[in-house]
Amino acid sequence: QVHLVESGGGLVQAGGSLRLSCAASGRTFSSYAMAWFRQAPGKEREFVAAIGWSTGTTYYTGSLKGRFTISRNNANNTVYLQMNSLKPEDTAVYYCAAGGGPSWSSLSVAYKYNSWGQGTQVTVSS
Predict the structure, then answer these.
(1) Which CA distances in Å does 121 have to 10, 36, 58, 66, 115?
(2) Contact 116, 24 (CB under 8 A)
(3) DSSP 3-state assignment of 109?
(4) Residue 40 phi/psi, 5° resolution?
(5) CA angle 35-25-95, nearest 5°?
(6) What pLDDT, on the 0 to 100 scale, is given for residue 70?
(7) Mean pLDDT of successive 10-residue segments in the chain (126 residues)?
(8) Angstrom distances, CA of residue 30 to CA of 33, 50, 68, 99
(9) Nearest-CA neighbor of 90 among 2, 1, 3, 9?
């Protein structure tokens, strides 16, 4: 089991930036990837980005690539999500997850991840 704790959310104006952090502990070596998902009120949880824990390969949902960047620091078991040029439609609870597998279909769906953080709220004002 992997324990995940997110931080870095908050309120920001449109066009601003935030960096989310996800500190992982436990059996991190058992997870293929770390990912960020988000869920807006009344909407399903959607995939944002993932990074291979050992490979460092990154994956993004197409609409966010270029504004969001996922990275990792294996030394301190932390994954980051740098979010730039934020828009009001980016408002959501952002969740960190561990699990996934070596294919897009195993990385971009929530049920492939077996460990989740508690979520951090990101609110973008217009």
Answers:
(1) 6, 13, 23, 21, 18
(2) no
(3) coil
(4) -90, 160
(5) 30
(6) 97
(7) 94 98 88 95 96 93 92 93 97 96 91 96 97
(8) 9, 16, 26, 8
(9) 9
